[in-house]
Specification:
Blueprint: E1 3-7, H1 16-29, E2 34-38, H2 44-49, H3 52-60, H4 65-74, E3 86-87, E4 103-106, H5 116-121, H6 126-133, E5 139-143, H7 150-157, E6 161-166, H8 170-174, H9 176-188, E7 198-204, H10 216-228, H11 239-242, H12 256-263, H13 267-270, H14 276-296
Helix pairs in contact: 1-14, 7-9
The structure holds adenosine-5'-triphosphate and magnesium ion (MG).
Magnesium ion binds next to helix 1.
Length: about 300
Amino acid sequence: MAVVISMINLKGGVGKTTCAVNLAATLSRLQQRVLLLDVDAQASASGLLLTDDTYRNLRKAGRTLPFVLRDFWESKDYAPSSAVFQKDFVKNPKTGVPLLPALQLIAGDSRMRKLDEPISKRRLTLPRLMNRIGNGFDYVICDLPPALGPVSLAFLLASNYYLVPVIPDKLSVMGLTDLVPSIHKYVIQHDSVEVYPQLLGVFMNRVASGNKTADQPLYMEEVKRIFSSGQFTKYGIPPEEGARIPLREMISDTVDIPYSASDRLPVCVRSDNNSKIADDFELLAKSVLDRILEKSQ
Ligand SMILES: Nc1ncnc2c1ncn2[C@@H]1O[C@H](COP(=O)(O)OP(=O)(O)OP(=O)(O)O)[C@@H](O)[C@H]1O
Ligand SMILES: [Mg+2]
């Protein structure tokens, strides 16, 4: 069964989508079969990967996530249509040769916004949907919107793990104290499911190099302090577990990210020679794989 990981932070613009797309792409380069689910109504992950024409056609044809949900709720023996799984959309720009055969995507859609009510009523069905669409994949990576609305709650409930990017910024780090209790209150205490999402790790995105770095180690120290303080013990993260939550692996702040967005190429395939940012995502992906292996033993 696929391992489901949701990329979440209640703050906007910290790099959830950038990291979900690049983590998914990098995992697929590491021989994992990966499905990226674009859960956010902003459909940013789809915009980073698909051409405007492709996306417009998918949307028009109803081959996006809100339609997958509707079909699932309407059919007793739901089996996802192969038409909703986008394949081979990452191509060599010169030759057109597909570069990431192990990566697939279910595209997002602004019409997810209309699903708040039906999804709140049916959130306990999401683990079953995830089983159906995740069949044949090793990992499902969900890019969630920047809020704990009904859609995020439902997808968290269907996740094995959640992964949290933060940026070196006071408010971003302060927001962490709120995230774990909120997820616990709304997802874990609220509903009864077989598996509850566990916090897999918190990692720093947009880490600058050069002379802008002076205060950055302080933010990581603060993240470590927050998780080791014992304040999350009642949410199932005692200090000894909390000490392992901040990941050592960090993602650089670099123009390669907006360039890779313009090229619609994840960083792991954009440059022929290994780039620093591709290495950052490879280390993050390997750390994620190691942690999951450890937790499953
Ligand atoms: N490591 C990075 N280096 C440079 N720019 C970055 C990096 N990570 C993210 N960005 C830029 O920051 C902006 C926000 O990133 P992104 O859309 O991934 O954040 P988000 O958390 O998904 O936002 P939202 O909350 O709206 O969903 C984008 O313009 C993106 O290109
Ligand atoms: Mg996003």
